[in-house]
Structure formats: structure tokens, C-alpha cells
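Section 3.1 - Work completed
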Amino acid sequence: MSIQEIKSAVKKNSNKEKAKLLQRFFKTGKGEYGEGDVFAGIQVPVLRKIAKANGDITLAEIKTLLASPVHEERMISLFILIDKYRKGDEVEREKIFKLYMANTKYINNWDLVDVTCPHIVGRHLFGIGEDLLLELAKTNNLWKKRIAVISTMYFIRAGKFDATLQISEMLLRDDHDLIHKGVGWALREVGKKDMNTELGFLIKHYKKMPRTMLRYAIEKFPESLRLQFLKGQI
């Protein structure tokens, strides 16, 4: 298989009407977070099928495809990268991790981040340490900050919450809605594993949290407790 075959499959499955909807949904207008991104209008299950059928392309070819201006082509490259990481040995995984981190400028919308970083960045750093994630959280780059917090989903699933809580505290006063949502989501996942841990964090910080972050974090709480947080009565 080749990059050209992937591009041909994307062209074959493209849908102009869906592309218009996706470009609005993913905020591709001037001054918006996805400014300039180009969509083909293809649903994720179809992208996964294309990725599965072309999983034997090389890392060099993946790197080329990841630089595509077409959103779905970048997503396909990332799906293939996840599968290669899952199947790879230690040497291969290190190469994939380095490729991912060297090309974050192309992982530049929230779906590209959320679908991929726990399976590559989070998994790779688990048990090694989260220093790199803390550095990403300190940057001024929206997508690197989102990678930092969403990568910890892998840690959360393994019952480890320290990195999530530390990064969440660092991002409490971030001014972007996508960070508010990402942190809130991560905290909600902590709560699914250990409600007391999430409660302890929220009680300490909820009054200075952006409202969206708080709403995401407490979405699954019992209604009476959720209202107490929203009214500032905890």
C-alpha cells in the first residue's frame, strides 16, 4: 500500500456537504482554533477502515501523510501510528513516540489529540515519569497543553492520578475553552475511578475554576451534590 492509495480512498469517500458541516464544527474559520483546516467529510469508522487497509506504510510515509492539509488524512496517519505502536517492540515504540512529539504542529485539532495521545504519549511515559507532560502544560501552545492533560487518561485508567491533578492545577486559569473542557473531562475520569480523589481536588479549587471546567468535572455527580458545587455551597 502507499500514501497515494490512502489519498485516493479519501477522495473516493469524500462528501462536500459533510465537509462543510465539519469545518464549522471544528472551527476552521479565520481567527478560530482550527483556522485553515481542510475537511473531506468522512466519518471516523471509514477512516479507521482505510487506516487498517494501509497499515503497512512506513514511518517515513506516515510522517509525510501527517503533514497533509487534509484533516482526515492526518487522522488516518495517526490511526496507523497507534496500531504500529501497539504492535511494536521497545525500539519501534521509541521511534514512534519521537515522531509523534516532533510533529505535534500537525496534531492540531482536539479530535486528533484526544484519539491518539493517550495511546502513544500517555502509554509511553507511564511508569517513566510525567516531566515531559508538565513541560507541555507550561507552553503557550493550545494543542501541546491539551496533549499534556489528555495523555494522562492512560495514567487514570491505570489508577494513577498525580499527573492529572498536577497538570489540572497548572491549567486552572488557562483562558481557552478547549483546555477547560479537557481538564474537566480528565477530572471526571478521575472521579469514575476514585470519587474521593476528585472531590478533594475540587473542594480545594472549584471556586477559582472556569465554569465550563467545573461543569465537565461534576457532570456525573449526584444532582444534589452537583448543584451544591454550582452554587458554591461546598
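Second construct:
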Amino acid sequence: MLEYLAREIQTVCALGVQVAIVIGGGNIFRGIAGEARGIERVSGDYMGMLATVINSLALQETLESFGIPARVQTAIAMPPIAEPYHRKKALRHLNKGEVVIFAAGTGHPFFTTDTAAVLRAVEVGAEVILKATKVDGVYSADPLHDPTATRFEQITYLEVLQQQLKVMDLTAISFCMEHKLPIMVFNLKQQGNIKRIVLGESIGTLVTN
């Protein structure tokens, strides 16, 4: 998967597009799930943040093995491992053609990596958020469990909030709506989708005003 991601990102970087990435850590530890195991939510969330750092370092190493310069910045300071998050440094890296990977979420419990992605996107002036998922867009219900679910080609932030659709968490959607930041929800496992989106093809579901 790391090599697949690196190749997908490489095709976009080759176009001269600036790329910043926020990675989750659910494959290692999902904070909220820890409560069922007797782990207090705040501790669980911090464990989840550390999981995102592990994933970010793994992606950084893979990108660099493909000749793509990459930087990891963490919301929680850990200088021996990565740079602490600094907006102006992140912008300088992006302007030099480096991929910037934002790790450790927002640095605070109770906030998801969705919210961290939106926050960082607004801070660095991103044009769009590409929300990578396992399905090809936003559906009226979970298409993996409901065969009657229908896909939206475009939907508004307000409709997502009102229908409580599982696009991103509600805090992230509200923040996007406030800052008029479009979200493109797409299937990451369809090879070439990231490049298609960047080139203007209609892929997945666009969430906007």
C-alpha cells in the first residue's frame, strides 16, 4: 500500500502540483475504540496520534525511495523524529516541491484526523481536500451494506450535515463550509484517481456550497 500511494502521489507531483497529506492511524490504534478495552478516551486519542506519526514516517521513507522529497511535521513536538508543525516552514517546503505530511492530528484529544486535515488545509491555503475512501463517493447509505444506496455526484455541506452522511466528521464539514473549502470524496484504490481529479475529471463526489 505504501508503494501504491507513493506512485499515485508521484504522478501528481510530476504535474507540479503542491501536495500536503494527513494520514490517520486507525490501522494501528483508533482512540475511540480503546474505551471498550478500558483505555480512557484522552489517553486513547494520544495513542492514536502517535499511530499517525508512525504511518507518516513510513510514507515519508517510501516517497523518498521514489525520489520524492518529503517532510513530516507533527502537531506534538518530537524534534528527534520530525519537525514541529510550523505553517511558514510548511509553505516553504511546498513551494520547493516537497510533499508535506502533517502528523499527530491537531495535537489535541477529541479531534479527528478529518478535522486536522481541514485545519491544515485552511492554514496552508489549499484549493481542495481530497478525501480518500474505500468507495467511489458519498452515498445515501453505506453501499457496502445497503444495495439500495445511491451515489451523489455533488452535494452541499449543509445537506451532508442535515443528513448526517458519513463523509467526514461534523466538525470538519462545518469548518469546510465556513471557509468554502471544497471536498472531493473518491476511491483511493482505483489507480490513477488522484491524477484524474487534479486534471479536472469528474471522479467521486464533490462537496461544496
